[in-house]
Every structure is written in structure tokens, then in C-alpha cells.
Amino acid sequence: MTVWKTSMRNFFAHKGRMALSAVAVLLSVAFVCGTLVFTDTMNTTFDKLFAATSADVTVIPKSARTDETPQNGKPESLPASVVARVAKADGVKDAEGAVSSMAVTVVDSHNKNMGSETGAPTIAGNWTNNDLRSMEITSGHAPRGPTEVMIDADTAEKHHLKIGDELRTIAVTGDIRARISGIAAFKVTNPGAAIVYLDTATAQQKLLGRPDVFTHVSVTAEPGVDDGTLKRNVATALDGSAAYKLQTQQEAADANKDSMGSFLDVMKYAMLGFAGIAFLVGIFLIVNTFSMLVAQRTREIGLMRAIGSSRKQVNRSVLLEAVLLGIVGSLLGVAAGVGLAVGLMKVMGAVGMELSTQDLTVAWTTPVIGLALGIVVTVLAAYLPARRAGKVSPMAALRDSGTPADAKSGWLRAGIGLVLTGSGAAALWATAQADKASDGSLFLGLGVVLTLIGFIVIGPLLAGVVVRALSVVVLRLFGPVGRLAERNALRNPRRTGATGAALMIGLALVACLSVVGSSMVASATDELDKSVGADFIMQSSNGQLIVPQAAEALTTAPGIEHVTNYKVLGAKLTNPDGSTTDQHVTAADPTYPQDLRRETVAGDLPAAYGKDAMSVGDGYATAHGIKVGDTITVAFKAGATAKLKVAAITSDDTSVDQGSMYMNTTTAQRYVPADKMPKNLIMFAKARDGKEKEAYAALKSSLAPYPQYKVQNQADFKQSLKDQIGQLLNIVYGLLALAIIVAVLGVVNTLALSVVERTREIGLMRAIGLSRRQLRRMIRLESVVIALFGALLGLGLGMGWGTSAQKLLALEGFGVLEIPWPTIITVFVASAFVGLFAALVPAFRAGRMNVLNAIATDG
């Protein structure tokens, strides 16, 4: 009980100093809990949506997949006669044919795309009774003919659409112009998909190209018939046909959920990874807090030991304070995490992904995980200071000798740090020497971990060297005040090292990702300059295939010398060594070698566009012992089997089309039926000499009716690559900001506790003439040099990581290393301002100290 009372008294006696550490725990726990709540809410939203939209039993073609759009732009279909056969099965109340396609774009009368900008699909289909499970018509009526269309309420509200407005639905079979006859609202949350409904005949003809087919059959059970029984009865009615796949409501929902699973998992684990970084940074803050609190209570600990307290009791007292800190910070963090999840939902809503707070899901495991992580991390961080407190001898403590550093342990720490750093450097060197990216990635991961831990361990040794060097450049300019700041930063190298390491981690990741991103952009730009001969590139911004009417508009644009089609087909290849592999092969026009200059290691690439010929990449050729003149059996998944002669082997030393296998479009057309032939994934164009500007304008004008596609010249394409990577890096930097905020709190906490620790010294300095202004400047300069120390280590470490990572990217064709010096310099300078900001409160409090009280203090 005495230990408990002591811990409670000390905790509340230092509540101001504990608050900053509690904030670090709070932020870290909030990020974890917010991520879990946000992703659980997304799962709940999609679970409800998929359950509501799935029939009791659904019949679909065996080859249909929910996780990809058919490459010919038309979904797999089944005969309309299947509906009648299913309707005769026992236990069937209703069976209706349905049409659904995601290979569409919907635009309004102003040619504005009605689709989501977040990647959510645009879906077109016919209105059926099964849709009443998830939707209700709130105004107007369902479409009754080819000139009418119904739209979902969310899309109507977002784009200010009303009944009578004209919409154009763009599909591979042509454009569908119709006016809005009705608006239907979701009964559950719609995460952002745009839905349009056509009448059944129009949907069949325009979306599937035939009047007598459906994409699936929705089956409703008679009362009392369970889904499993209904599925078996329907299978019997279809004579167990292997051409169809049957799914219960739960199975259909699970299949749809699986297609979303990878996206949600990537988001979840990426965010948890950044939360882990914040936890790691928070550990330094907590270690520093407890180390300094223990040092300030040295005499008190000595008295406790003198009156009979054991080492275990002293240790336990400090750990109990850590438990209290962990509980308070974690409880607040769990609550903040729920708030953070709601905030993320609002942000997603602003960019087009709707998530309702009515679906907010807080699983019981979320607060348990948050509390457990917060408390365990806090106790682990406080363990070393607590152990150090227990080792203080009573007499040494009573003499106020503090907790002097053990020289032997200091040298041991330095030795371990040097070994870890050297081992990490060796692993990074091995990364640069790797011949395969898979092997090199293991060395890279090991090198990152070892050098990070090594720099943390060796931090006190580095502090003595780096801070002195920085002081010559930064602090000596401020005369005696600068030298005092330097002395204070060097007074406890272990503390300075730990404080700087907290900032180092976040900035190391920033520097690493900046190097990787800049190198990728520079490599792609260099590759484009060397390889791309086409003047213009046409493609969709979200990976949609190019519909025939858009392709025709491009082909007939004036000022164009040639247009190259580029299609991707799925196939199973049987190689000369007898092995079989599933591959994607590229069918392109013979002009493609002019549009993309590929280096060949054997054979002649234009010859690969001859009759029944193809090319392969040198990596594939080496793996399967293929040489020019060999024959590969190509079984097209959407067509027949061909025997193609290898006419060229292309180099994989490129970032554009690496590993692609080429053949002539006419070769693919001989073996794949016209209605199964994929649409263009991308198209290239070459302008007539001197007509580049006119051709560019003509292509843009030709594609104006199809806003889902864009025409880019080489400059546009390079800028697009740069923007895409820049946006990704900005998101990562935003997530890393949490770790940097925690690191700043660490600097604030260290300075605040350092000021308390030096109360008497500050009083004496003020008594002999140091002004308040000089005192505040001294503390600010100390903060700046600590921040610059952490930034210098972090940026140096990050550039080392980024340089090693680029060597792996070089194996994938990204061979240019570019150090983004403007970013590095900006971050370094910004670190000085971070130090100034962190010192504001501690410097202000130090300046307000009463001189006489400070001199008389026992601290």
C-alpha cells in the first residue's frame, strides 16, 4: 500500500510533466484504435451492402469473376432460357434475369463524368425486384423504354441531377442517351458507386450486345426454404451443369467482400505501420521523462532506501507510475481513436466515399488492444529508468550524487552500437550487390532495422561529435549564450541522443521515401526519353478499356501519321522445356516498335509482328531456356490455341513494358473470336512531321465526348507520373507527421524537465547577470541544436536507405538515382524551426522563474 501511495503522490506531483508523455501515448493509441474502428466500419458498410444486394441464390456463368472487368468490355453472360429452368425448381418463389456491367461511363448533358473519383465503380443494369432489397424509388418511376434511365439518389444529389435531365451511358456497344425518369435511394450506405438503371431490353442489347442473355439470375426462396436447400434444388433443375456457378446470399456476399479484401487490408496494415512508428518514437519520450524524473528524485529515493525500502519496491513504485500513465493515456487514446475514425469518415465523404456514422463499428477488441498496447509500451519504456532507480545506493543518493553514468556500460553501449551499425551498413551494401529484387529486399529490410537500432544505441556517442560540429556553425555565432546552449546539450549525451533519435526516425523515413520517389520519377522520365517514340499516349485515368467509338475517333483525327492499338490477353503458355505458365500477352500493331523502342538481346522485334510469331522478355527466356526460333504453344483463355515462333527476345532492363510478350494484333485475331477480343488498354499516336500541335489539338477534340480518357504528349505523361508519385508521398508524409508530432513533444518534455532539473543553476546564472532574454535564447538554441542533430542523423540515414532501395529498383528498370536536395535541405532547415517551436513553453517558463526562489530550491 505504501508503494501505491508513493506512486500516486509522485504521479500527481508531476502531472504537468506526465501530461506530455500521456499525449504521446494518447496519439499513438488513437492512431491504432482509429485505424481499427475505421476499417471495421468500412467492413460493416460493405457487409451490409453486399448482403442487401445479394439474392437468396444467384446463378452466374462459371467463368464470371467479381474482381475484374472483362477485357472485351462485356460481362460474361448466360442464356435467358436459364431463367425459366430455374423458376421450375422446388422452393423457388421467383427467378428473374438481371444485367449488370461495370464497363460503363455515365456523363451528364455537360459531358461531366458522373462516376466516383475514389475508384468506386459505375454500374449499369436493369431494374429488378431483387433491387428492392437494397433500394427504393423515392421519386419518378423505373425506366420503361430505351429513352428512360433511373439513377441512385447519392449520385443525383452529388451532381445536382433531377428528373428530366439527360444522361449518356457510354458502353462498348455504343452510347445510350436517355432522360432521368426516376431516382432510387439506397436503404443501406452506398460507399460511393454510381448506379444507373435501364429497361431490361436496352440493358441486354446495349450492355451485353444480345437480346437473349443475362449476366446472372436472382432467385428468391419460398417462405421456409433455406438458402442451402434452394441452392441444391436449383442445381438439380440445371442438371448440375458445370457451365454455371451457384451462390447463396452469404456466399455471394463473401465473394464480393473478398474482391474488396486486399484493398482494405493494405489500407489497414499501412496505417497500423505508421501507428507503430509513432509508438516507437513515443518510447523515447517516455524513457526520457522517467529518466529525468528519477534523476530529480535521487535524494527522495535515497531516503526511501535508508528507511528500509528495497530495490524491488523502488522499482515497483516507478513502474506503477508508468502503469498509471499508460492507463490514462490509453483511455484518452481509445476515445480519441473513435473521434479520429469519424474524422476519417468525413474526409472520405468529402472525396466521394460515403461512410455513415450509423455504421460506426467499435469492436470490443479495439479498446482492449488500445489499452494493452498503451500500457505495455509505457511500462516497457519505463523499465530501464525504474531499474536504474532501484540500483542507486542510499548513501550516494543522500549525497545528491544522482545517478552517474557507468563508464563501463557507456563503452559497452558504444561497442554494441558500432557493431549493429556496421552490420546494418554491410546489409545495405549487400542490397546494392543483389542480382534479384526478392533477395535484395531481405537485405534491405535487415539493413534498415540494424542501422536504425545501431544509430539509436550509438546516439550518445554521436551526440558528442555532431552537436559540437553543429555548434561551431550555429551556436558559436551567439557568443556566450550559444556556448551555454552547447554545454547544456552536451551535459547528458544519453538524453540528447534519445531526444534526437525520436525525431531521427520520422525524418529518416521522409528522406528515404523522397529519394525513392525522386529516383522513380527520374528513371521513368529518362526511360521515356530513350524509349518512347510516340508523340501521344491515350488511356483512361482509372484503367478502363478504350471503347470502340473512342478508338475510332482517335484513328480518324486529322494530322496523325499512325495510331497503334495495344491490347492485353490472358493465355496459358507451354514452353519448349515442357513447363506451363499463366501469362498476359500483348497484341499490338506493327507500328508499335516505332512507338516504343525496345532493346533486343536476340532476334528482331519487327519480325515478332509477323504471322504466328511473338517475342518474349529475356528474364522469361532465361528461366525457360527459350531461344530465337523456338515454338511456344499459346492457349488463349478467350479463344483457341496457337503455336507461335519466337522471333525476338527483348531486354528486361527497362521500366516500360518490362517482361512484355508481343505479337501482331492480326495474329491474336486469328485465334480469338471478335466478340471476345479485348478492347484497347492504351493507344499511341504519331503526328505527321511539323503537325504536332495541330494533331495534339485534334486528338483532344476527338476525345472530348469521352471524358474518362485523356490524351497526353510526352511532357504531359512525365508530369502525370510525377504528380501521381507526389500525391502518394504526400499521403505518406501526412501519416508520418504523427510520429514527428510525438518527437516534437519529446523535445518539449526534455527541455521542460531539463529546466526544472537546472532550477538552482538558472537562478545562479540570473543572479550573476544573465537576462531573461538571454536565458530564453539559450534554451531555444539548445532546442534548435538537438532538433538539427536528430534531423542530420535522420536525413543521412534515410538517404542511405533510399540509395540502397534504388539499387533494387534498378533491377526493375528504374536505374537513375536522384537525391532530392531541395526537399532534404528544406526538411533540415524546417527542423530548426521545429526546435524553436518546441522551446517556446520551456523558455517562457524559465524566464518567469523567481531568482531567489530558484537559488533556494533543493532541485
UniProtKB/TrEMBL annotation:
It is found in: Cell membrane. Pfam families: FtsX, MacB_PCD. It is a multi-pass membrane protein. Residues 274-394, 735-850 form the ABC3 transporter permease C-terminal domain. InterPro entries: ABC3_permease_C, MacB_PCD, Macrolide_Exporter_MacB. The chain crosses the membrane at residues 269-295, 318-342, 362-384, 411-430, 442-475, 496-516, 731-756, 781-801, 821-844. Residues 19-234, 499-697 form the MacB-like periplasmic core domain. It comes from the Bacteria. Its main location: membrane. Keywords: Cell membrane, Membrane, Transmembrane, Transmembrane helix. Belongs to the ABC-4 integral membrane protein family. This is FtsX-like permease family protein.
